[in-house]
């Protein structure tokens, strides 16, 4: 792979370290998913209360990421990357000890802040580690997080199955070890130069059209992904699957999503980011619909493949945004990785309301069609190789930039 010859040894170590940190951190973000049915019964929650737990975490971990990104761009150079995994590990490993809804919400919110603060700064550090093949580099970082999310359900359900739900805190050891490595080896975020000195609001205003289209496409895709993650355990519970089986099915969906993201960056560097995004989303919708219509192993296989195509564009879209606003890497990374995902998660309770009327299977089938809406938005995004106006270093004259 050409990337290996274009990156310095320090750059490779940075990508490896922060990708490992992303894997560990995001594994805690999926702890709550397979335990939702159990926690709902234990705490006597309504379906609506249970449905709001995931969006609540997404607000702290995703919707607030632009704030974390702006703080990172202006002040902190590495603290969020170092301490984010520690905060996430400690608080999200305590959810099994929560005996009231407020205590559970507190664990979810503080743990979500740990997850969210890690992402924009780490994405910016990784992006700056290589001047070439940024989509491929970002795909490694992004896919590591998705793989971590896939490991989370298996890890936490295994702990609960062997030791009981009161021992979920055993899982925090992984985050503590990762924090120690990051404390020792994580490099700081590079100082911004040139276009980065342009006020962020001016840079965003110059490209608000294509950036809005990209943002809306990511929001819709995120709504689909989070809805399936949230309500699939309920559907599988109704079908009679055991807790560990639910963990494996959910992990398969998330894991193959990470595989899709890993290849997405390489494909985008070769064939174009917009083209790859359109192709993958066009295939995701029919595959997910077919998965929910099938039964048994065929359903799980189609679900994993559908999740793979659904997430091919995740790292690609982050790089597309960074190319539009090169002076605010942390902020626009947060906009695509966090704020858009958080906004999509806020639509998840609508799936819950729909499922109350027509059932989980039909509701998730209806949601699975929505990637085609993202396709409609991206069809209006500038073609690969096209030009958009990006604010110049003097902050006054827009200059053309190529969308690769």
How would you describe what is shown here?
This protein has 19 helices and two strands. The chain is an all-alpha fold. The protein has a single domain, classed as Growth Hormone, Chain: A (Up-down Bundle), CATH 1.20.1250. It has a two-stranded antiparallel ribbon. The longest helix is centred in the middle third of the chain and has 31 residues. The radius of gyration is 20 Å and the shape is globular. The N terminus and C terminus are likely disordered.
Can I get a quick summary?
This protein is an all-alpha fold and 404 residues long. It has one domain: MFS general substrate transporter like domains (Growth Hormone, Chain: A). Helix content is 76%, strand content 2%.
The CATH superfamily turns out to be: MFS general substrate transporter like domains
**Radius of gyration based on Cα positions:** 20 Å
Q: For the record, give the distance between the C-alpha atoms at the N and C termini, rounded to a whole number.
A: 19 Å
How many domain modules?
A: 1
Give the class-level CATH name.
Answer: Mainly Alpha
Helix content: over 70%
- Rough outline: globular
Number of strands: 2
| Helix and strand run | HHHHHHHHHHHHHHHHHHHEE
Ordered list of secondary-structure elements with their pairings:
Elements: H1 3-6, H2 9-29, H3 32-42, H4 47-63, H5 65-74, H6 79-92, H7 101-127, H8 134-163, H9 172-185, H10 200-206, H11 208-238, H12 243-271, H13 273-293, H14 296-310, H15 314-324, H16 329-346, H17 348-358, H18 360-367, H19 371-378, E1 387-391, E2 398-402
Helix pairs in contact: 2-6, 2-7, 2-8, 2-9, 3-4, 3-11, 4-7, 4-16, 4-17, 5-7, 5-16, 6-7, 6-9, 7-16, 8-12, 8-15, 11-12, 11-15, 11-16, 11-17, 11-18, 11-19, 12-13, 12-14, 13-14, 13-18, 13-19, 15-16, 17-18
């Amino acid at each position: 792979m050409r990337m290996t010859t274009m990156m310095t040894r320090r750059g490779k170590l940075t990508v490896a370290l922060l990708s490992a940190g992303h894997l560990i951190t995001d594994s805690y973000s999926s702890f709550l998913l397979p335990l939702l049915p159990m926690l709902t019964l234990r705490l006597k929650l309504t379906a609506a209360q249970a449905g709001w737990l995931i969006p609540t975490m997404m607000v702290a971990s995703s919707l607030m990421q632009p704030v974390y990104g702006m703080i990172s761009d202006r002040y902190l150079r590495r603290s969020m990357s170092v301490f984010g995994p520690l905060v996430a590990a400690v608080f999200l490993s305590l959810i099994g000890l929560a005996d009231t809804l407020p205590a559970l919400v507190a664990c979810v919110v503080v743990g979500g802040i740990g997850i969210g603060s890690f992402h924009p700064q780490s994405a910016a550090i990784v992006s700056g580690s290589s001047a070439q093949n940024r989509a491929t580099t970002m795909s490694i970082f992004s896919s590591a997080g998705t793989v971590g999310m896939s490991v989370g359900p298996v890890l936490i359900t295994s702990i609960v199955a062997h030791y009981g739900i009161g021992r979920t805190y055993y899982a925090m050891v992984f985050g503590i070890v990762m924090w120690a490595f990051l404390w020792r080896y994580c490099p700081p975020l590079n100082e911004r130069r040139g276009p980065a000195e342009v006020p962020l609001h001016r840079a965003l205003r110059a490209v608000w059209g294509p950036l809005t289209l990209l943002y809306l496409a990511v929001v819709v895709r995120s709504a689909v992904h989070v809805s399936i993650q949230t309500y699939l355990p309920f559907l599988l519970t109704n079908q009679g699957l055991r807790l560990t089986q639910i963990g494996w099915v959910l992990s398969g969906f998330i894991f193959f999503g990470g595989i899709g993201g890993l290849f997405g960056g390489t494909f985008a560097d070769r064939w174009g980011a917009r083209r790859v995004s359109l192709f993958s989303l066009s295939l995701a919708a029919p595959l997910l619909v077919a998965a929910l219509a099938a039964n048994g192993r065929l359903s799980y296989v189609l679900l994993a493949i559908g999740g793979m195509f659904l997430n091919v564009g995740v790292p690609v879209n982050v790089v597309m945004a960074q190319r539009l606003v090169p002076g605010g890497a942390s902020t626009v990374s947060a906009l695509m990785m966090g704020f858009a995902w958080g906004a999509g998660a806020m639509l998840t309770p609508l799936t819950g309301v729909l499922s109350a009327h027509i059932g989980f299977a039909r509701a998730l089938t209806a949601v699975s069609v929505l990637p085609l809406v993202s396709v409609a938005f991206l069809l209006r995004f500038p073609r690969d190789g096209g030009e958009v106006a990006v604010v110049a270093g003097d902050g006054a004259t827009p200059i053309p930039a190529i969308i690769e």
